[in-house]
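Quick one:
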Amino acid sequence: MDIQHLEEIKKLYWAHRQPDNAVKMAAYMKNKFPFLGINSEPRAELEKQLQLKFGKVDIADLEPLVNALWSVPEREYHYYALSVISQVKKKLMPSHVDFMVDLILQNSWWDSVDVLAPHFVGQILYNYPELRDEYLGIWIDSENIWLNRTAILFQLKYKKETDFELLCTIIDSLKHKKDFFVKKAIGWALREYSKTNPKAVESYIVKAELLGLSEREGMKHILKIKN
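Output:
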């Protein structure tokens, strides 16, 4: 699969649009994007059809195809772009960090960033941990909340291999921010790691002076296992 198949991809998706659903889906996403109205299950079927017909994307063709999909207004094409990236997730290289950042900064909303940050940026920084020093400070210091959220969430899937000291340092740098998506990310990252090490997370939260939403979200699993 490559960019030469873009028009066929667009035609297939367009043929399955559901206008009534589109209105509801756009409203759910605060009308940030237009939608075709294709729900997750039929989207998954379309993805299977495309992969059977065209095969998986080659890593060399990834950026042109994804950029083209990202430039189409309807959100389903962006979701498909994320699916395309997942096909080569383990092959992502250091050079793809800047590409992922570009995607994070375009068409920004939680539904795309929450795939890009933990799944793809996280995969690259897991495979190439030396890149953390190059990027994390920039993302933490940025005025862009989605880069802040990326710094917080990139280790979300690391489980026992989470560098909790690093996570705490990142949170300490961002815990004063009152943006909902930053506060929620802090709580989410802590809640996720509490499934691996609840004592460490509770000890940190007790002394960290987090804002209310971050603390409540971070403590959810801990309180659940205590009750």
